[in-house]
Amino acid sequence: MYASANRDETKYSDSDRFEIERFKQAQANHFAFGHGVHHCIGSNLARREARIALEILSSRLPNLRLRPNQKFTHVPTMILRGFTRLEVEWDNRNF
């Protein structure tokens, strides 16, 4: 199951917890873009787009953060583990 990728308890402590620092190194051992011959050909573009989008969001929405005390529920699928909803807040002093 692809949904179980990156959740191997023998490799990652507290594998169900999202810890972005876990995959910080350049040669991170994860399956976000597949593996081997099935590795996504657009992975470098996707990483660059995500970095640019997050840099712009963080510069335009001061103190962007997850809304506290929200309940995270996953999309009911056997393939991916996306959230049904992800609420954020930011300081709106500039608006």
Describe this protein with a few key phrases.
globular; 19% helix; 1 helix; 95 residues
Overview of the structural elements:
InterPro entries: Cyt_P450 (IPR001128), Cyt_P450_B (IPR002397), Cyt_P450_CS (IPR017972), Cyt_P450_sf (IPR036396). This is Cytochrome. Belongs to the cytochrome P450 family. One of its GO terms (molecular function) is heme binding. The protein has 1 helix and 2 strands, in the order H-E-E. With 95 residues, the chain is mostly helical. The termini are far apart. The chain is globular, with a radius of gyration of 16 Å.
Q: Mind describing the biggest β-sheet?
A: 2 strands, antiparallel
Strand order of the largest sheet: 1-2
**Broad shape:** globular
Radius of gyration, in angstroms, nearest whole number: 16 Å
Q: Distance between the terminal alpha carbons, to the nearest Å?
A: 44 Å
Task: Give a summary of the structure in a few sentences.
The chain is mainly α.
Topology:
Blueprint: H1 43-60, E1 65-66, E2 88-89
